[in-house]
Structure formats: C-alpha cells, structure tokens
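Fold sample X.
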Amino acid sequence: MIRITFYYKPGCWLCDTAQEMLNGLIEKYSVEVTKVDITSDDGLYELYRFDIPVFEFADGSSLHGRIKRKDLMQKLEENKDRSN
C-alpha cells in the first residue's frame, strides 16, 4: 500500500485535476490517500497556499502545482517498495 497525503483547497481547479489523475491510478498502485483541506488550519494554509495541490509521499518527497501524470507515476513507482 502506497500512502500519500494530498493537500488541497476546495474550489481549486488544479486540485480537482490532480485528484482525478490520482483516482485513475489508485487501484493500479494500491494507493491510500489522506486528504487535507489546507483551509482548515492557518499554518497549513500559509505553508501550502501557493503550492497546492501537493502530493506528499512516504519517502519525504512531494509533487506540487501543475502535476504531470508521468511525474506522478514515477513517484508511485519509487514508493511501491516503501509500502508495508
């Protein structure tokens, strides 16, 4: 199981696009997603407001902004071996 934390903001079209892209890969890569609305916490909002959407992976790496499918697939491949 690959665990990803997905930082997003409601109404963000880039976030919606990233979510759709990830949804298409969830079964193939056995992904568990924890969604975090950055508007629910002032600190998270300040940290991520210019970077959303953000996918944070178990290896400490992340993807943000205009995320490309090939980059997401590469990160999923890299994190497959880290899943327990």
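Fold sample Y, listed below.
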Amino acid sequence: MGRLSGFRYREIIRILKRFGFEFHRQASGSHEIWYNPNTNRYTTIPNHSGDMPEGTLRAILNQADIDPEEFIKSK
C-alpha cells in the first residue's frame, strides 16, 4: 500500500477545500466536478463508498495540480 492509499471521499473533499476547490457541478453517475477559481483548475472526483484507489487519487491530484506530498501534509 502506498502513501496515498486509505483516503475516503469525504477526507479528500475536505483537503481539496483547503486548497481552494469548491463544488462546481454533478457529472454523470456518481462523479462530481470540482473547481478552483484561484488556479482555474478542474478535477473530477468519484463519489464512491470505501477507500479511493491510489491511482485514482493520483489522477485527481494531477488534474488539480497538487503535489502528493503537499496533499499528505494537509491531512
């Protein structure tokens, strides 16, 4: 298990809000689009139960232009 494993949807959202992201709109199915007006970046987040797969969280952070180490420190 990597350092980015074990994060749940609510915890990810809480941390993304600290980075300035806000809910933008509902996407297809259980996915949500979040937007950061300061950086003009969007990211898509699946709203599923259980832990987020590490690869999915890495993709979210890549879209949001957030360094994984900064994300972990903001925990």
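Sample Y note: Residues 54-64 form the longest helix (11 residues).
Also: The mean pLDDT is 95.
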